[in-house]
Amino acid sequence: MAINLVSLVQQFLTPQMVSSLARAVGVNEAVAQKLVAAALPAILAALATAAAAPGGAQKVSDAISNSDPDLLTKLSGAVAGGNTQLLGEGANLLSGILGGGGLASLAAALSQHAGAPQAAAQPLIGAVTNAVVGTIGQQDPSNWSDPSAILSMFNSQKSAIAAALPSDVAKALGASGLLAGLGGAATAAAQTASSTVSSAATAASSTASSAARSAQAASRSSGFPMWAIILIVVVVLVAIYWFVTQSQKPAEPAKTGMFDPSAPIEYALQAAPSPVGPKRG
Fold first, then answer.
1. Between 264 and 85, where is the model more confident?
2. Does the predicted TM-score (pTM) go above 0.85?
3. Residue 4: left if φ>0, alpha if ψ -120 to 50, beta else—which one?
4. Helices (H) and strands (E) in the chain — how many of each?
5. What is residue 234's predicted lDDT score, i.e. its pLDDT?
6. Cα(165)–Cα(40) distance, integer angstroms
7. Higher model confidence: residue 183 or residue 156?
8. What pLDDT score does 125 carry?
9. d(CA 20, CA 81)
10. Residue 221 to residue 68: CA distance in whole angstroms
11. For position 230, what pLDDT does the model report?
12. How far is CA 264 from the centre of its chain?
C-alpha cells in the first residue's frame, strides 16, 4: 500500500506536540508551528537529495536501521519533560547525513521563514528529524532496509513533499543543492515564490499609479502644489523598491564552524561520519 510520509509524520507532530516543543526551546508557539510545518517537507527533501547521491542511500538507510525502535515514544517523553538532549541528537544525525553545511542552510532558511532565532531553529529541526526517522522506521522494512528501497520510497514522495514545501523556503534553499532530489517539483515550488513576488510588485506599482492619479486630481481641484505630488510619488516608489528587494533577499547561512553550505551534497556525504546508534530490533 502506498504511503504518504508528509501525512504520517504530521500525525505525530500534533499541535499539542509542537506546543510542548515551543516551551522546551523557548519560542513563541505560533513561530514553532510555522517552523515545524516548513521543516517537515524541507528535511524530507534534503533526505531525498542525500539518498540520490552516490553512497547517500546507504547512509539514510543505516540511520533508520540504527535508530531506536522506540524513538517516537522517547521523543514525546523528552519534549513533554523539557529535555532537549534528544533534539540535539536529531540535529547531529541530520548533520551526519547532509554535512554541517546542509544543516546550517536548513536552519538559516527555516529561521527566516518562521521568524525564529537560529539557535532555536536547530533543536526544532532535530525534533522533526527524529520524528521523520522514527516514522519511517515504523513502516514496512521493505521501504527502507536497503539503499534501493529507500531511494524508491523517496522517489515516490517527490510530489507530496514539494506540495508541502513553502515557496519562500524552496527559493531560499534553491542554491544549496538540498532540493535537487525533488527534480522538477522543487523548481516548480521555487517558481511559485518568484511569481508571488512579481504579482506583489505589480500590485504595488498599480497602487502607486493610482496614488499619483489621485494626487493629480486633487491638485487640479484644490490647487494642491505639484512638489507635494512629486514627493508622494517618490515615497511610494521607494516603498515598492524596498518591498521587492526584501522579498527577493535569500536566507544567509548560519555563521558556524561547519562546512560551506554551498558545497555539493556529494562532498558533504563523503566527508560526514556515519551515524552510530543502537541497531533496530
1. 85
2. no
3. beta
4. 14, 0
5. 78
6. 8
7. 156
8. 97
9. 9
10. 77
11. 75
12. 18
Q: Which region, left, alpha or beta, applies to residue 80 given φ > 0 means left and ψ of -120 to 50 means alpha?
A: alpha
In order of 70, 180, 227, 280, the CA distances from 241 in angstroms are 52, 31, 21, 55
Say which amino acid occupies 209.
S
Residue 134 contacts residue 3 (beta carbons within 8 Å): no
The position carrying cell 516603498 is 239
| Cβ-proximal residues to 69 (8 Å cutoff; 6+ apart), any chain | 137, 280, 281
What is the distance between the alpha carbons of residues 113 and 216, in angstroms, rounded to a whole number?
40
For the chain, report the end-to-end CA distance as a whole number of angstroms: 23
- CA torsion sign, 147 to 149 to 150 to 153? positive
**Residue 272: all three cell numbers together:** 560526514
The burial of 161, by beta-carbon neighbours within 10 Å (0-12 exposed, 13-18 middle, 19 or more buried), is given as buried
Whether 37 contacts 126, CB under 8 Å: no
More confident residue, 272 or 44: 44
* pLDDT tens digits, 248-262: 554 444 443 333 434
Go through 166-181 and write b for each residue having 16 or more CB atoms within 10 A of its CB, e for each that does not: bbbbbbbbbebbbbbb
Q: Write out the three cell numbers for 76.
A: 514525546
Pick from 133, 61, 51: which is nearest to 91 by CA? 133
Residue with cell 535569500: 250
116, 106 contact by CB (below 8 A): no
Q: Which residue has the cell 528529524?
A: 129
* CA 146 to mean position of chain CA atoms: 26
